[in-house]
Amino acid sequence: MSLENIKILIISSSPHKYGSVRLTAEVCKRIAEYLEKAKAIVIDVYDLDIKPCRGCVSEDVKQCKLPCVYEDDMRKLYEIIEKSDGMIFISPIYWYTVPGPLKNFIDRLTVFENAIFIDGRSKLEGKVAGFIAIGNDTGAVALIQNLMAILNSMGVAIPPWALAYYESEEPIIENRSFMLDVANVVRGVVTMAKVLKGIEKPTYWYRADSEYLEHVTKIFHQVHNEFGIQRTLKNRFL
């Protein structure tokens, strides 16, 4: 089986088009494709119509099933998630947790987990997840551990080195440790997906050699420069 069959969905959640969260999401996509040889799709939940979960499962467990009662953007996302081998969540820190649009997305995944009672198996079982939190203040670990508990409770596998976080007002491209951790979140998710598919049995997971760090740093700076140009053009024509 080709490594290119590994498909990763990168879910960011920021209202800031050219901020650190969306920048990191684009970096993750390029690392997945160029360094880890996987296919990647990036979405941001702020760009989508995702309604709050209405809690059908609490009224009748058999009513929480596909197609969801809402006809919003989650319908197409369900198809993408089903075809994905892994997900990477990238979130800003909103009072020790995720912003509302991402919480809506996660709550709406209940229909996949509840497939246990419809089809006998969670539709998320065996998929892989990684987590990245970025903010100017504390709360990253609380955010990540909450997401880990939720996703694992839905049947998702959590690989080694599945988290990266940054709690500083300084630009993320000035922190090589964070950039390397981000790359290894991507690497961990892709590697675990390959393990679960029987493609590979890795001898190690975290990669910290100088060649890898050089590639990762270059990707971060390329995306940072591109975002700067786009931000300048946007402001010029406002």
Features:
alpha/beta, Rossmann fold, 5-stranded parallel sheet, 44% helix, 13% strand
Radius of gyration: 18 Å
Strand order of the largest sheet: 2-1-3-4-5
Second rung of CATH, namely the architecture: 3-Layer(aba) Sandwich
In angstroms, what separates the terminal alpha carbons? 49 Å
Q: Kindly state the percentage of residues in helix.
A: 40-55%
- Summed up, the domain count is 1
How would you name the CATH homologous superfamily? Flavodoxin domain
CATH topology: Rossmann fold
Q: Mind summarizing the main beta sheet?
A: 5 strands, parallel
Mean pLDDT: 94
Morphology = globular
Q: What percentage of amino acids are in beta strands?
A: 5-15%
Listing every helix as H and every strand as E from the N terminus to the C terminus, the arrangement reads EHEHHEHHEHEHH
Q: Which CATH first-tier class would you pick?
A: Alpha Beta
Structural class: alpha/beta
Count up the helices: 8
Number of strands: 5
